[in-house]
Amino acid sequence: RFGELTITGEYWKIEQDGVIGLLGDSNAITLDYLRRMQGSTNPNVLRAAADPDDVTLFTGALDNNGAPLAPAGEIIQVIDNYRNLGPREIEGYDIGVFYDIDETPLGDWRVGLNFARLLTFFQAPGPEQQELLDAQAAGLINTFPFVAGAESLIEENGRPKWRASSTITWRSGPWGAGLFSSYVGGVNDTGAALADGTPWRIKPWLTHNLYVQYEVEGDQLIDAVRVRFGARNILDEEPPLADSDTGFLGDLHSSRGRTIYLSLRTQF
């Protein structure tokens, strides 16, 4: 009489060993800065020889030991090979709420809501990352740029804290309609920063798909014929700006704008 309500919940946890990954250019360059301030260098950051302008720029600069800071030339290349990373722990929960009610004065309705929350995404830091974290704790380098790929990675690049989606469908006789919405929470972009060093914040992204359909009864030769007219990303939302070759995070967002379609479906 009042419809059917279904609520689902799932908690999950993943522990990984033997993860393969990269240190990252930003970490390697920050490590080179840290070591130069201590009288050495990061051998994986290859630089050109210091030119007269570089020598002038470094005149009077001192390292952390009070010694003259050696002039550094322009970066030519960062060597960043794949390596074994430390253990990784990931956990979160998913919640679903679904409500179905039929034969109302306005037809049959289906409503579904899904929420996914990332609770933990912890990557044990490697030796170089730990060196940077210790330097931050000691005040030898700024808090930003932060150490990418180490410790808590929630809301870092492609790991939003929240994801959600909703579906509403309606049927009344031969007519029907549906609305699907998708939400992806905001994340920090480790490849870009503001002038004060704060990481670039990639905004949340909300998109909607909508369709209307009409179904014609079939006969002995073919089944019912369904005609559907709809639009994906109906508000033509652009993907949030990110520091990547495409200008957005392809694993979270899409550059496909509003797409209008007409489909015809039947079976013989």
Describe the structure in your own words:
α1 (25-36) packs across α3. The chain contains three helices and 15 strands. The longest helix is centred in the N-terminal third of the chain and has 12 residues, at 25-36. The model has no long low-confidence stretch (mean pLDDT 92). It is mostly beta strands. β6 and β7 form a beta hairpin. It is elongated, with a radius of gyration of 27 Å. The strands form four sheets. Strands 1, 6, 7, 8, 9, 10, 13, 14 and 15 form a nine-stranded antiparallel β-sheet that branches.
Provide the fold topology.
Layout: E1 4-16, E2 20-21, H1 25-36, E3 45-47, H2 52-58, E4 75-78, E5 83-84, E6 88-104, E7 107-123, H3 127-137, E8 151-152, E9 162-172, E10 175-184, E11 187-193, E12 199-202, E13 205-216, E14 225-232, E15 259-265
Antiparallel strand pairs: 1-6, 2-5, 3-4, 6-7, 7-8, 7-9, 9-10, 10-13, 11-12, 13-14, 14-15
Helix pairs in contact: 1-3
